[in-house]
Design a protein that fits this description.
By secondary structure, the protein is of the alpha+beta class. Helix content is 44%, strand content 12%. Strands 1-2-3-4-5-6 form a six-stranded mixed β-sheet, sandwiched between helices. A hairpin with a 3-residue loop joins strand 4 and strand 5. It is globular.
């Protein structure tokens, strides 16, 4: 029996190998491809998908590297897809909630202080509980039973919205529409940088006004679109921000005059 078959059997999901429910790599036909590629690039061993969404991240290790787990937890929390990170070690299984905020790598905790760690299960003594872990997570029963470890207010999307509201309040010296436009610009550019759609050379000489960058941005994005499997990965955010500009009528955030739905 292969090592993969052994740990799959431990969780009672060996029969799902080869099905769309279990992903050992990003795969061309899977949704959330960029997120899966990033996770597998960090040595996640597999994902269990629920309704097509990567919900359980499995990591199989011979020993516990707490700093690696801290980094993995941070990366997965930041994606906002999976609900739990399950780490199997030679003698135990550790279940981490991804509905808890990450901590700096190497943070030291006393007993029961790490709110990310839902529970530790011994492979030998709690084998049955480990085998029922996946069905309990799929049904939502596990989250309900451990609700104090699963706080929707600290998920990445809720945290981002909270930070945006606080940023808006801090920009009280600007008119409301101007503050919204500035925040939209920053978020949009950060997204494009993170996805690799814009690079240093797209900022013409670095010191020019951002409106100069905006004037060449659509062409730059469309050139990169041709290298991607689907151009909608870039075009959809552009259209969203064009609509935001139309709603707020901000001339300083003028994607609306650069693109239109007919051009996508």
């Amino acid at each position: 029996m292969s090592s993969a078959a052994v740990w799959l059997e431990n969780f009672g999901i060996a029969d799902r190998e080869g099905t769309p429910d279990l992903a050992f790599g990003p795969g061309s036909g899977l949704a959330h491809g960029p997120a899966l590629r990033a996770a597998f690039g960090r040595a996640v061993d597999a994902f269990l998908l629920v309704d097509g969404i990567p919900t359980i991240a499995f990591v199989i290790r011979n020993q516990l590297d707490r700093e690696e787990i801290d980094r993995l937890h941070h990366a997965l929390w930041n994606q906002g897809l999976a609900s739990v990170l399950v780490v199997q070690l030679p003698a135990e299984v550790r279940v981490y909630s991804l509905w808890q905020q990450p901590v700096p790598p190497g943070t030291q905790f006393g007993p029961d202080q790490d709110r990310r760690l839902v529970e530790t299960l011994e492979l030998a003594r709690q084998a049955l509980q480990i085998r029922t872990l996946v069905p309990a997570l799929e049904s939502g029963q596990y989250v309900e039973q451990h609700r104090h470890h699963f706080d929707p207010k600290v998920r990445i999307d809720a945290t981002l919205l909270s930070n945006l509201r606080e940023t808006f309040l801090q920009l009280k010296g600007l008119p409301d529409d101007a503050a919204r436009a500035l925040i939209l610009q920053i978020v949009f550019i950060a997204y494009l940088e993170d996805r690799g759609h814009i690079e240093k050379e797209d900022y013409q000489n670095g010191g020019r006004h951002l409106t100069v960058t905006y004037s060449v941005l659509p062409g730059s994005l469309r050139r990169r679109d041709r290298k991607l499997p689907s151009s909608r990965a870039t075009s959809t955010p552009l259209l969203v921000f064009a609509r935001a500009n139309s709603t707020w009528r901000q001339a300083s955030f003028s994607f609306g005059r650069m693109i239109s739905s007919s051009s996508l």
